[in-house]
Amino acid sequence: MTYHSEELLPGTQRALLHRIATAQAEGRAPSLVAAVQRRGRVVWSGSRSCVDDHSPDADTQFRIGSLTKTFTAVLVLRLRDEGLLDLDDPLEKHLPGTGVGGVTVLQLLGHSAGLAAESPAPWWERTPGTLRPELADVLGEQSRIHSPGRRHHYSNPGYTLLGALIETVWGASWAEVLEREILEPLGMSRTSTQPQAPHAGGWAVHPWADALLPEPTEDLGLMAPAGQLWSTATDILRFASFLAEGDDRVLGAASVEEMRAPSTPPESGDWEGNYGLGLQVVRQDGRTLLGHTGSLPGFLAALWFSTEDDVAAVVLTNTTSGLFVGEVAADLVDIVADAEPRIPEPWRPLTEVDADLLALTGPWYWGTRPNILQLTADGGLTLQPLRGSGRGARFVAQPDGSWIGLDGYYAGETLRVVRAGDGSVSHLDLGSFVFTREPYDPASAVPGGVDAEGWRGLGG
């Protein structure tokens, strides 16, 4: 049976609409728009508004706040992939005179550089960026409050520094580089640094009364790389597809996968949340969600996607507080993934079988621990314990005949096939661990040797 339909079931659609309607009503948001994507296609969108017959749609711009940081992180990774910097480079190598010492590009991306969370007063989100014309005005006198690399401490000024780094290395403004390197290639024509009609206006809702107050919309100046962007539900889901799969016009699959990996230990007591490189990583109900939340006065935004379920959801609203958009977006992912689980792709065999690789498959023993080596349809190898959980990994072939681990305990480690003098396979060497065809095979190079009398019973 072949399955092609991308449409959601009516019950799923109603559950999605009920969730955002409840969120808008209970959160007292002037308006809210949400959309869900599956298999790279928007399969549902919905909106609610306090004004009859005037709801936003998936093409209405909202301010997305700190979701902007993910775009900035992509530009930094792009510089790395172009060979213009290394993530372990100290910032001072490319942007001297900041006064933040030897903090690295990687630490800034993952918020582990030890910088303060905010710039000095006045509150930067509600005041013009012209009040902070220099980096020193953004960093203040005490820019570092923790030792670099020791803990995750979210920092808006840190992403201002990354924006300045982008401008220095690329020789153009952050906005120009963003347009050229991300927005144009991905077709994100409704994402911009300034609002473009149709767009929502930002509002504050009184905490104890059903009353509204308009919020100012300031140009953030040097702080723009931390939170300036305006976007739509449709554009954000297009960006989510890129973050899930990569796009060689911007960043390849390996680089976006690197962004999704946790980069620092989580805060004490917060073992369900972490941060990659410009992406938040959370665990909820056994599901890993990636994305980012954002807020600026008058606006809240959230994007979450699950690569395992191939589902993404975005929620945009024009209220300063009162609505937990991150929870709503996560619930939208859960609704679709639980009600309509992903249909796996059909199993397909190898197009060609390499006899030498096929001969390597099957059981291998690390000491007495059995493992299974398998040849997969993509031409890679997997090594997994025969029973229970343990050290396992996928491996990809290298030109010299070795294999490099892609994940798990052996990520980055080298697997080599060691042959005897007659050309037969003696053993596998994996990061100095010897894997043999029999437990402690005396015919193989087992470290420490094997007792000459061999295996025996208790009375032997």
Automatic annotation (TrEMBL):
<dbReference type="Pfam" id="PF24491">
    <property type="entry name" value="DUF7586"/>
</dbReference>
<dbReference type="Pfam" id="PF00144">
    <property type="entry name" value="Beta-lactamase"/>
</dbReference>
<dbReference type="InterPro" id="IPR001466">
    <property type="entry name" value="Beta-lactam-related"/>
</dbReference>
<protein>
    <submittedName>
        <fullName>Serine hydrolase domain-containing protein</fullName>
        <ecNumber>3.1.1.103</ecNumber>
    </submittedName>
</protein>
<feature type="domain" description="DUF7586">
    <location>
        <begin position="353"/>
        <end position="437"/>
    </location>
</feature>
<feature type="domain" description="Beta-lactamase-related">
    <location>
        <begin position="20"/>
        <end position="336"/>
    </location>
</feature>
<dbReference type="InterPro" id="IPR012338">
    <property type="entry name" value="Beta-lactam/transpept-like"/>
</dbReference>
<dbReference type="GO" id="GO:0016787">
    <property type="term" value="F:hydrolase activity"/>
</dbReference>
<keyword id="KW-0378">Hydrolase</keyword>
<dbReference type="InterPro" id="IPR050491">
    <property type="entry name" value="AmpC-like"/>
</dbReference>
<dbReference type="InterPro" id="IPR056008">
    <property type="entry name" value="DUF7586"/>
</dbReference>
